[in-house]
Design goal:
The protein is an alpha+beta fold and 383 residues long. It folds into two domains: 3-37 and 131-217 and 341-381; 39-125 and 224-324, no CATH class. Helices cover 49% and strands 12% of the residues. The chain is built from eleven helices and eight strands. It has helices at residues 3-36, 38-45, 62-72, 123-133, 138-147, 149-162, 180-213, 241-254, 311-324, 329-359, 377-381; strands spanning 77-82, 91-96, 102-107, 114-119, 259-264, 273-278, 290-293, 300-304. Strands 4-3-2-1-5-6-7-8 form an eight-stranded antiparallel sheet. A hairpin with a 6-residue loop joins strand 3 (102-107) and strand 4 (114-119). The protein is elongated.
């Protein structure tokens, strides 16, 4: 294959992918972009989610929150209590009702006061499920969405191949005074250059999700080193908030510096109490650092740190923070949101460019005016 044929092949590949998949990609990209701030949208719409004042991690009233939940909803099965990264959020409890429905319970982080209950379904849940698995069963929807990383990667590579000397185009202003096809094409190339690193990052993490859905899940976290003594109930009948506060203290003694973010309560009589949070490992979810506590006698049964996890698990833990940009708080979310909008515009403008080219298609050669000719692939990509 000579250079001309190779360039034409990549041009047609890039154009075909852009046209055939543009609407589907646009839908996935815009739902993912909104999902970056979907939790903050819920915060605006749900008064119960708003913390009354700033509370440092050391001030969180875990025990009082537990007592509030068990007093207010004694018949519910408490799954866990969670603290969001940003201090303006209330504590969130997840519980299962006697009729097997999941609900969210909101608690003040300073004194544990019960603030209200909301449905499991929310703006955050809607956009996350729509983006991740198209509201389909996860075994079906997630592979479909994550598979799109493959044509996205091919399109990115093809774009660099057909855009000759692309490094000279980083500061080329779109020619907005020209016809639609010209300035949209200019914008498409300019946005593509600046957002290329972001496209590559999203494609790589999406490919990883596809690997996981194809059977490449990471190993489980290290189990407790000591087996939990079996008991009659998942939590001892006399377990109180004071016991939970002591368990948190034991966890911090086990992992000094641990900023507790998640407390998972036992589901079965042989399960431990699990306390997880942020420590020193970077680009991991809060669950990457954990301590196991026996709820019967509050003894530490084992622990694990993010740095000690195997390479496979570290990749898995880094995928979500990198994909959604929540590793740096509100600052990284803003960056991810802006680049997500530009990435979405790439799918839309790509479809516009190809559609306009079809509409402006030159007549067959025998009908061309004298001296006219069909443009080459190199000339087409410069239009």
């Amino acid at each position: 294959m000579n250079k001309k044929s190779r360039d034409l092949f990549w041009y047609k590949t890039h154009s075909w992918l852009g046209l055939k998949l543009s609407l589907f990609l646009t839908f996935i990209l815009i739902t993912g972009t909104i999902a970056v701030f979907s939790l903050e949208i819920d915060w605006l719409l749900t008064p119960e989610m708003r913390s009354k004042e700033y509370v440092s991690p050391e001030q969180v009233a875990w025990g009082a929150a537990f007592d509030s939940v068990t007093e207010e909803y004694s018949g519910y099965e408490l799954v866990g209590i969670f603290r969001f990264h940003d201090s303006w959020f209330s504590l969130q409890g997840i519980a299962i009702t006697p009729w097997q429905e999941s609900v969210r319970l909101w608690l003040d982080p300073l004194d544990g006061e019960f603030l209200g209950a909301t449905s499991w379904y929310s703006v955050q849940r809607f956009f996350r499920s729509m983006h991740r698995n198209l509201m389909m069963p996860e075994r079906t929807g997630t592979p479909i969405v994550s598979f799109m990383a493959i044509p996205l990667t091919i399109s990115l590579i093809a774009g660099f191949i057909i855009y000759k000397k692309f490094w000279t185009g980083f500061f080329k202003r779109p020619r907005f005074d020209r016809k639609l096809r010209v300035w949209v094409g200019d914008f498409h190339r300019l946005a593509g250059l600046w957002v290329s690193w972001f496209i590559a990052l999203i494609a790589i993490t999406s490919l990883w999700y596809f690997v996981e859905e194809s059977g490449g899940n990471s190993p489980s976290f290290p189990p407790p080193t000591v087996r939990v003594k079996e008991r009659q109930y998942s939590l001892p009948e006399n377990f109180t908030g004071a016991d939970l506060d002591m368990a948190v203290e034991k966890a911090i003694e086990e992992l000094p510096g641990l900023l507790v973010r998640r407390i998972l309560f036992p589901s079965f009589s042989e399960d431990p109490l699990i306390i997880q949070g942020d420590l020193t490992a970077t680009l991991v979810r809060p669950r990457a650092n954990g301590v196991y506590i026996d709820p019967l006698n509050l003894k530490t049964l084992g622990s694990y740190r993010g740095e000690d996890l195997n390479f496979h698990t570290r990749i898995s833990e880094a995928a979500d923070p990198l994909h959604f940009g929540n590793f740096g708080g509100i600052t990284s979310k803003i960056i991810w949101f802006i680049f997500g909008l530009f990435m979405t515009s790439m799918a839309l403008t790509g479809a516009v460019i190809y559609t306009k080219r079809l509409g402006d298609k030159i007549k067959p050669t025998e009908e061309l005016p004298r001296g006219s000719r069909v443009p080459t692939a190199e000339e087409i990509q410069l239009l």
